[in-house]
Design a protein that fits this description.
The protein is α/β, with parallel strands linked by helices and 372 residues long. The chain contains 14 helices and 13 strands. It has 2 domains: 191 residues, 3-Layer(aba) Sandwich (Rossmann fold); 169 residues, 3-Layer(aba) Sandwich (Rossmann fold), CATH 3.40.50.2000. A 7-stranded parallel β-sheet has the order 3-2-1-4-5-6-7, sandwiched between helices. Helix 11 links the parallel strand 11 and strand 12. The chain is elongated, with a radius of gyration of 22 Å.
């Protein structure tokens, strides 16, 4: 199949999943065409069966805001016609679904029929999508999509609650490639911690919804009982506040900010515990990435996280903002090596259920159904 994938090319979960989906489909022999405004950060170097089409917006003095949606739709039409696409798959509803609808109708007027799939990733529904100024457009585009998928049952439920749609929503979860576990490189680990010190890790875009200050507060409580180290990967609007809190709690000698990381595996494999105390998560991809490396997860119980992190098996779930409970759960895992080892094994086993090879087949079957 010739598949057009429209995405945000950034470090966010939707962009990462869309890029990895395209790469895996290309590996299976499909022709993949990424359509976006810059090269996806997870795309890497040249790959067989993959073409990147850049969407360039002209900066006319007339426009206070660049008309990206219109230019994107035009680019989708151009790629669809000249690359003979079979299907368009847009990730994140705003503005990709409305641009896809426009492109489909333009193509239809030229005698070309191309279905489009809209995949919902979370904040396009739970945060941005609830803005009244977006709601009519999102509702219309959901109803006009040839198929709609969501990355979790929780997100599917939220979509039906917030939008007037009778469109069937198929849940196809996020995924990652699962590789055999390998021993930690102690020479790298010792750059961050002594052998007897546990390492906590958190990876995110440091937005308010991630509650990164809770990470530091929980870590501080645990550190009072068990001297530990914390690695924070990522960057964003809350970093300055987090750095200030780090100084206030006198933890700076035990916290390492490493900034944005293209491949988080090299950070996560050093960790003994991963923390995800978010206000809301449609899925919790970062938690899954940690579990795939055998790292238990201490998280909130919101959104789709409980569909990934199983309480009492792969880690622990706490109410949003319950710092004391999170610290208690972390100490429970760290105080007993046998229990920690059991949770590590459970986390890895659970992650295998989200292996890319299993999940991508669901997308292929969906494409094939739409093309019949």
């Amino acid at each position: 199949m010739n598949i057009g994938i429209v995405l945000y090319p950034t470090y966010g979960g939707s962009g990462v999943v869309a890029t990895e989906l395209g790469k895996y489909l290309a590996k299976k022999g499909h022709e993949i065409h990424f359509i976006t405004y810059s090269q996806p950060v997870r795309l890497g170097s040249f790959r067989e069966n993959i073409t990147y089409h850049e969407v360039t917006v002209s900066d006319y003095p007339l426009f206070d805001y660049e008309p990206y949606e219109t230019v994107l739709a035009s680019k989708m039409v151009d790629v669809a016609k000249h690359e003979q696409l079979d299907i368009l798959h847009v990730h994140y509803a705003i503005p990709h679904a409305s641009a896809a609808f426009m492109a489909r109708e333009i193509l239809k007027s030229q005698g070309i029929t191309i279905p489009f799939v809209t995949t919902l990733h979370g904040t396009d529904i739970t945060l941005v999508g609830k803005d009244p100024s977006f709601e009519p457009v999102i509702t219309f585009c959901l109803n006009q999509s040839d198929a709609v998928t969501a990355v979790s049952e929780s997100l599917k439920k939220d979509t039906y609650e917030h939008f007037s749609t009778d469109r069937e929503i198929q849940v196809i979860p996020n995924f990652i490639p699962i590789e055999p576990l390998k021993p930690v490189d102690l020479s790298v680990r010792r750059r961050f911690a002594l052998d007897e010190e546990p390492i906590f890790c958190h990876v995110s875009n440091f937005r308010k919804v991630k509650r990164v200050q809770d990470v530091l507060k929980v870590f501080g409580k645990v550190n009072e009982e068990v001297k530990s180290q914390l690695i924070l990967a990522g960057d964003g609007p809350e970093r300055y506040t987090l750095e200030q809190l780090c100084r206030e709690l006198d933890l700076c000698d035990r916290v390492t900010f490493i900034g944005k990381v293209r491949d988080t595996q090299h950070v996560l494999e050093l960790a003994d515990l991963f923390m995800l105390p978010s206000e809301t998560e449609s899925f919790g991809l970062a938690a899954l990435e940690a579990m795939a490396l055998g790292v238990p997860v201490i998280s909130s119980n919101t959104g789709g996280i409980p569909e990934v992190n199983i309480h009492g098996e792969t880690g622990f779930l706490s109410d949003v903002g319950d710092i004391d409970d999170m610290a208690k759960n972390a100490l429970f895992l760290l105080m007993d090596k046998e229990i920690h080892a059991k949770f590590k094994a459970n986390a890895y086993k659970r992650a295998q259920e989200f292996d890319i090879e299993r999940v991508v087949c669901e997308y292929e079957r969906l494409y094939e159904r739409l093309l019949k």
